[in-house]
Amino acid sequence: MDTVFEEEDAFWGFAVVEVLRHTGIRIEEMLELTQLDVHDYDHHDPTVGKVLLLHISPSKQDRERMVVVAPELAATFAAMARRIRAAVGSTDTALPSLVAYDYAECVNSDPLPFMFQRTAGRGFKGTTAPMHKTYISRVLNKVATAAKMTGPDGELIGFTAHDFRRIFATDALAAGLPPHIIQKLLGHADLSTTQGYAAVFPDDVIRSHQAFIHNRRTLRPADEYRPVTEAEWDEFGEHFAKRKIAIGDCMRAYGTNCTHEYACEQCHLARPDPGARDRLQRTRQGLVDQLDEARQRAWLGEMERLDHILVAVDGKLDEIDRVTRRVTAVEVTMSPRPNRAPAPTSSGDNGVG
User: Fold this and answer.
1) Is 222 helix (H, G, I), strand (E, B) or coil?
2) What is the pLDDT of residues 326-353, one digit of tens each?
């Protein structure tokens, strides 16, 4: 393992994720960010005060915009700048100016202090180079692999740069940011770059985005950050003890009660355990017997109810089968391979080449 390359990819993987998730910008816009795009804006309303803004150059339909720089994003920008300056041995506050090739326009840029510059690799000693989309995809793949997040099908989840644009919009909407403000932040509305900041970035956009950043940082109550009492710890453990049910585990959220009237076989929050297969099979057989009786007696309502439960029980049995197959596949993959027996040698072979 080349630790220099691995450390390089790990840092820029972190930086890419932070910039994308805090801004919602496109990958082309991110790679075109320069040190000149970060501006201080003194708002005319003293209650708003100084605002740090990031100017996003257009990459699609000539739409430019400004977004508020959150404190976490400002810290990421500072770490990126320190790394780049250290790579070239510079004590200057300005980043090295580089010429980047625009593959869409097939032209070279003017020398600019780009914020995304490679800082390690073959031929990079004492120098840097502009980043390309292929490198961004590589570090995002490494981040996703290291995170080991899986989807409902058990497969590893991967991310593209554009996925974080959707994550930004979803997060903003869930935090209460009005849709028309999100539209402006994502560059889906025309903004004039010839006007002053107050016109380019209206007051409602500044206020709403700042409120979004503040709310996101204060979602958790302050009194949660204190030592846990003995009673609280016991209550926490008791909740998870109560989640143990006959067919497996109840996955309802901590501190919540059952809202499904304890019909566990029909509840999507009940995760069946492979060891409960026999119990579920007995339950299924009992349902089949009751269904036969209901048909004989023409209890149409009972037939409908039993059919509904039977479908749910079959779903739990299928879920157990899927888990069992997945576990078996992992065990087979991880089982040690038998050592090969040494090849037989002829009687005249004395082992000397």
Assistant:
1) helix
2) 666 544 444 444 444 444 444 444 443 3
- Which CATH superfamily is 3-217 part of? Intergrase catalytic core (1.10.443.10)
How far is residue 34 from each of residues 54, 117, 120, 143, measured CA to CA in Å? Answer: 10, 10, 19, 24
Whether the CB-CB separation of 33 and 158 falls below 8 Å is answered with no
In the chain, the largest separation of any two C-alpha atoms, in whole Å, equals 97
307 secondary structure, DSSP code: H
Determine how β-strand 101-102 pairs with β-strand 65-68: unpaired
Per-chain mean pLDDT for the chain: 77
Domain extent listing, the chain: 3-217, 230-332
Residue 230, pLDDT score: 78
Long-range contacts of 99-106, Cβ-Cβ distance < 8 Å, separation of 24 or more: 99/130, 100/31, 100/32, 100/130, 101/130, 103/132, 103/133, 104/28
Distance CA 126, CA 103 (A): 26
